[in-house]
Amino acid sequence: MGAMKLNERSVAHYALSNSPADHMGFLRTWGVPGTPPNPSGTGRRCWFVLKGNLLFSFESREGRAPLGLVVLEGCTVELAEAPVPEEFAFTICFNAPGVRPYLLAADGPAAQEAWVKALSRASFGYMRLVVRELENQLQDARQNLALHRHSSWKSRCKTQAPDQLSRGLENGYSLSRDCSPMGLVEVGGSRPAGRSLAESELQGPASFLLGRGQSPVSPETSCFSTLHDWYGQQILELRRGWLQRAQGSQPKCEEQDRP
C-alpha cells in the first residue's frame, strides 16, 4: 500500500467543521497515531469523532486540534481483549504488511457494539457494496412490478371480456377477439339508427373483416399490403355504389329532357 499525503490544515478544518459526525464518544486507546502513550499502561482516554471514513482523536470533547487520524480503508474491525480488566476492546486491523493494529476500548458493551458497527461501515468499499445491493434490489422490484401489472391486466381482461360480449350481443353487436372498441360490428347486416348510407357503405368491407376477428391495428395484420387491400376494398365498394346510383338516375333525366 503506497503512502498517502494529506493536507494537515484541510484535515483539521474538516475535523472541526459543522459537518455532521457519523459517530462520536470517549474511547481508551493504545497506540492510535498521534496519541501520546500512557506510562501506566492503562491506555489514554480520548474523544473520538468519526466522519465518513476518517476517525479523528482529540484530547477532550472541547479540543480544537485533532491529535491523530485513522483512514478507514482496507481494514477490518474485530473484537479483542483489553490489557485492562473491565474494558470492552476492539482492534482496527489493516491488510498491509508492517502496519500494526490499533487497539481501542469502550466504556461498556453497548458502546463497543456501536463503535464496531460504525467503523465497519465507514469505508468506501462497504458503501460501494451497499450501493450495488440497493441497485439489485431496485432492479428486482421493477421486474416484480412489471410482472404484477401484466398479470393484473390479464386477469382484468379475462373478467371484463364476458361482460362486454354479453352487452354487445344485447345491443345487436358482436366483439372481435381483440376486445377493442374497433371490434364492434353489426350482426345480421342491419344498419344502426342515425347512420347514413355512405357511412354504412364505408364500413362495409371493414365490418366484414372485423367480424372475422381481424383488425387493421392488430399486431399480426399490420403490414402495409394488408392495409392497402382493406382500404382498397372500401374504395371499390364506394365506387360500385356510386355507379349504381348514377345508372339509376339516368332514365329519369332522359324522360325529363323529352318534349
What topology emerges from the helices and strands here?
Layout: H1 8-16, E1 23-30, E2 44-51, E3 54-58, E4 68-71, E5 75-81, E6 88-94, E7 102-106, H2 109-120, H3 124-170, E8 173-174, E9 185-186, H4 197-202, H5 204-211, H6 224-257
Antiparallel strand pairs: 1-2, 1-7, 2-3, 3-4, 5-6, 6-7, 8-9
Helix pairs in contact: 5-6
Explain what the structure shows.
This protein is of the alpha+beta class. 45% of the residues lie in helices and 19% in strands. It has six helices and nine strands. It has helices at 8-16, 109-120, 124-170, 197-202, 204-211, 224-257, and strands at 23-30, 44-51, 54-58, 68-71, 75-81, 88-94, 102-106, 173-174, 185-186. The strands form two sheets. Strands 4-3-2-1-7-6-5 form a seven-stranded antiparallel beta sheet, with helices on one face. A two-stranded antiparallel sheet has the order 8-9. A hairpin with a 2-residue loop joins strand 2 and strand 3. The longest helix has 47 residues, at 124-170.
What attributes does this structure have?
6 helices, single chain, 259 residues, 7-stranded antiparallel sheet, 45% helix, two-stranded antiparallel ribbon, alpha+beta
Low-confidence stretches: 173-222
Average pLDDT number? 74
Q: What is the alpha-carbon Rg in Å?
A: 42 Å
Structural category is alpha+beta
The number of E-state strands comes to 9
- Proportion of beta-strand residues: 15-25%
* Main sheet: strands, sense, barrel: 7 strands, antiparallel
Query: How do the SSEs run, as a string of H and E?
Result: HEEEEEEEHHEEHHH
Q: What strand order characterises the main sheet? A: 4-3-2-1-7-6-5
User: Can you count the helices?
Assistant: 6
- Amino-to-carboxy terminus distance: 119 Å
Specify the helix fraction band: 40-55%
Shape: rod-shaped
